[in-house]
Specification:
- By secondary structure, this protein is of the alpha/beta class.
- About 35% of the residues lie in helices and about 25% in strands.
- The protein has 13 helices and 19 strands.
- Strand 18 and strand 19 form a beta hairpin.
- Helix 1 runs parallel beside helix 5, helix 2 runs parallel beside helix 10 and helix 10 runs antiparallel to helix 11.
Length: about 375
Amino acid sequence: MKALIVGGGIGGLAAAVAFHQRGWEVEVLERAPEFTEIGAGLSIQPNGLRALDALGLGEALRSGGLADPPSGIRRTNGSWLIRNDVADLKRRFGQWVTVHRAGLVDLVLAALPARALRPGTAVRQVRPDGTVLHSGGTTTADLVVGADGVHSATRRSLWPDVPGPRYVGYTAWRLIAPPQPVDGSAETWGRGQRFGHVPMPDGRVYCYLMANAPSGSRTGMADLRDRFARWHDPIPALLNTASEDSVLQHDTYELPNLRTYVSGKVALLGDAAHAMTPNLGQGACQALEDAVTLASTVDTLGVRAGLAEYDRTRRPRTQLVARRSRQAGGPAHWTSPPLTALRDAALPLLPSSLFERSITPAYTWAI
């Protein structure tokens, strides 16, 4: 049996590993000239770690350094809007890990034979019978996995009438600042913009910034430093010490709900199926869940029944997580002074258990 994976990001490579470990022949088509991940830091939450455990890769990631769950959300003056019980989150749900995206890709790549990798291969069309037309010719497989991201060629081929990704109204910057002390992982909300920082095992600090902006607009480091100059410490210092060329900016898109993730012998996975806002940090974790679930169901039940089971289990779950992610970040992007004042007054009064209940479905997944 052969699985052809379209897309060599985290989800696609994880799917390739999952099928390879089950004895399938795998081939990964990646448009870029090499398999790597352009990005900054990445928090792997307990459910993502369990998916990596299913691939035998969880312990290798843990050995690189464990991380704490998010401490909560602050106002721009540093006072707390939401304060999480970090110890209780770890006790209830498990461990978090922070890693550079490229480091995770390297870890998964190492579990695959070199012969399975075909970089520099652009996919032009995917057919429901398992045929893929690409820049290197035509390949047919028993199963095709569309793991080719938010602007998926696989999805466009087989779901041509489905609305495309929609811009959610805010853009995001990601960077890694040099080593410096920070008080855990936290996010700060202003009006229509926010800043988050996550310490990495080597002392560097992964930072992400989001702000309301027209799609396609671009902002450099000087403007970012000015924008956040009066926010609480250590935000100005993190921006002042980061280099200009460390900043990556991407507009934020999400995908409208699909009615199915499968068509014939083809399954969508990760952002190709359910691109979501980054507000819960679940994008990569959901892709990892997709990968191990797809391999398990198809290998156990056969392609047809396995794809039906994959769709039955993964679509409701991922669409729930996407909806909660959208809801979680919405108030951070309010711009009305009365509304943001109401938000800042109300959030500290809510029970801490409210946050935990909202994310419990995501964190408690197991294969």
